């Protein structure tokens, strides 16, 4: 240890040390304390991460915005492997800018899909680490939000082997039960029959919002139709909606402005077939995601389940009627948001 160079400095150091030792103990939890030193903040917060997981369409983004805008100073790290790519915002269900309400979103639409490569779980692990360090240095809570459980596992597991597959259907590799971050896992769950009904309607809503035109532009400006080998399909070309509509655009060309699907029965047949495939594949994806979540929970991960079934049921009832009441939002608040706030508050107050 280097000694102070003068009596004045030594006296100053002693007085500073005594003032620190005699300072009153803070009554607020650590996450609520003001902090001016980013490095110190990072040391204190580096292991506190909130992870919001669940199947596609279950409301993960909605919950993250609810928490970040109303309860906890947060920034969001996307963990959806299709949403990391730029483009196809409707098809990949990226949260629109207007709905982000000013909350910073990281790793969302930031990978150039023209490179035609996968963002690997290992790369996500490294990128998420960098974003977490940056977020906690600003005294914010990192919210890792997304449905790609392979990304979540790679990010959180203490020991991660890029060559192993812990979600393989037959003879999966063992899951590492130890975590390298202090994680609070919020699992938004919805009864599969209710979720499937909602997902079917969501596909219709996406098409009404311009998904078909978005895909038309995508095929017009990419080399996807030149790639006939589906085995080599990577990156954004694997997003649900792209392979399903590929036969349509392969048959009728990249631009279909000369006739709409409604005006030609052949076009209509291929269009309807693509829509049915999107709905089926979306529901199958949701079931696979739930299976992976259950595997993590059964392997010792402490996942806090939030049952959003009642809220989704209320949403479907309102959509099927002429009423426009606020019942779905009230149920969502009671069944999902309020329990989440209690869970996260307790988590952040723990040493």
From TrEMBL:
Entry keyword annotation includes Glycoprotein: no
UniProt xrefs under Gene3D superfamilies: Crystal structure of tRNA isopentenylpyrophosphate transferase (bh2366) domain (1.10.287.890), P-loop containing nucleotide triphosphate hydrolases (3.40.50.300)
InterPro entries tied to this protein: Dimethylallyltransferase, P-loop_NTPase
Keywords, sorted A to Z: ATP-binding, Cytokinin biosynthesis, Nucleotide-binding, Transferase
Single biological process term from Gene Ontology: cytokinin biosynthetic process
Database matches in Pfam families: IPPT (PF01715)
GO cellular component terms, semicolon-separated: mitochondrion
GO MF, one example: ATP binding
Family, as annotated: Belongs to the IPP transferase family.
Name recorded for this polypeptide: Adenylate isopentenyltransferase
Species in which this protein is naturally found: Actinidia chinensis var. chinensis (Chinese soft-hair kiwi)
């Amino acid at each position: 240890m280097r000694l102070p160079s003068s009596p004045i400095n030594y006296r100053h150091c002693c007085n500073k040390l005594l003032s620190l030792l005699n300072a009153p103990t803070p009554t607020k939890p650590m996450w609520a304390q003001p902090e001016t030193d980013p490095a110190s903040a990072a040391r204190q917060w580096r292991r506190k991460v909130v992870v919001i997981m669940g199947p596609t369409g279950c409301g993960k983004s909605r919950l993250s915005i609810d928490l970040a805008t109303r309860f906890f100073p947060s920034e969001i790290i996307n963990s959806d492997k299709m949403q990391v790519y730029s483009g196809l915002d409707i098809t990949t269900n990226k949260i629109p800018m207007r709905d982000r309400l000013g909350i910073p979103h990281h790793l969302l639409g930031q990978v150039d899909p023209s490179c035609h490569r996968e963002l690997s779980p290992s790369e996500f692990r490294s990128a998420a680490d960098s974003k977490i360090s940056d977020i906690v240095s600003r005294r914010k809570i990192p919210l890792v939000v997304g449905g790609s459980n392979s990304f979540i596992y790679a990010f959180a597991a203490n020991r991660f082997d890029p060559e192993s597959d812990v979600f393989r259907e037959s003879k999966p590799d063992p899951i590492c039960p130890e975590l390298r971050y202090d994680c609070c896992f919020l699992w938004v769950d919805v009864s599969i029959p209710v979720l499937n009904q909602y997902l079917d309607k969501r596909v219709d809503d996406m098409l009404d919002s311009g998904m078909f035109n978005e895909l038309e532009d995508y095929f017009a400006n990419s080399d996807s139709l030149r790639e006939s080998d589906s085995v080599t399909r990577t990156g954004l070309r694997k997003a649900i909606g792209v392979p399903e509509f590929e036969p349509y655009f392969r048959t009728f060309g990249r631009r279909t402005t000369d006739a709409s699907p409604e005006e030609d029965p052949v076009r209509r047949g291929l269009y309807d077939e693509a829509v049915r495939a999107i709905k089926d594949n979306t529901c199958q994806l949701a079931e696979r995601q739930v299976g992976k979540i259950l595997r993590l929970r059964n392997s010792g991960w402490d996942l806090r389940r939030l049952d959003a079934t009642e809220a989704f049921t209320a949403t479907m009832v309102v959509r099927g009627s002429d009423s426009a009441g606020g019942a779905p939002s009230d149920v969502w608040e009671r069944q999902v948001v309020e329990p989440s706030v209690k869970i996260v508050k307790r988590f952040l107050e723990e040493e």
